Amino acid sequence: MKKLVTLFMVTVLASMAAKTVLAADTLADVKKKGVLVAGVKDSLPPFGYVDEKTRTIVGYDIDFINAIAKKLGVRVELKPVTSASRMPQLQESHIDIIAATMTKNPERAKQVDFSHTYFFTGQKFITKKGTVKSLKDLEGKKIGTAKGSTSEQNVKKALPTATVLSFDDYPQALLALEQGKVFAVTTDEAILAGILAKAPNKARFEIPRVQISDEPYGLGMRKGDKHFVDFVNKTILDMEKSGEAARIFNKWFGPTTQFHLQRNFKITAGK
Hints:
22% strand, 2 domains, disordered N terminus, 14 strands, D-Maltodextrin-Binding Protein, domain 2, alpha/beta, 39% helix, single chain, six-stranded mixed β-sheet, three-stranded parallel β-sheet
């Protein structure tokens, strides 16, 4: 019996060690295969969406992935993910990194390792103009958001009397708002600005000054993938120092864009 227990423990430890080695090999593997596979959004401007002219996925998140790949000397392969599918895709090794508007929080940090914060925003709402002045106006209402998002969790805490309807993506939630099926749509302000800018009847809607959370975005990597995490963190810190990170922000959120926001953050170590 003791031999069986010992053999079992050795097998478990060997398995754990193998997983640790695999997790730590992403940087070397990416260099070896010559391609960085990134999970990104493909219908969420300006973070990740299909450009109508080029039919390629472009956006703020994609520019960061391109910069990391350039530093690695490899090409990029983009794989569309949803809020619900992005972590399973990473854990099952279908992608090497997540760049998909993913908020850093303690629960997710148990499953993936995050980079330093490369974007910062806050959770708000899209509503019909003039209908919401305070959080109280949203109590007891139907509110749309995306499955598997922190927005889904945050709104349930902030508005326990509301009915939260979860959709596969935010454009679907906005359609429900246009059709009167929900009273409001909630997620991060930067995402709301992106989907509202693309709405055909955007003049009917607004983003009231009602915020329920802070949302720091991180690039997600496999747990224990230290070499890769360190490389990504150094790269984005260098991008901040050189001004490249600010240039990417201005490209997508600057005053001449339809998604205009103020850059109220800097990429710093430990955040």
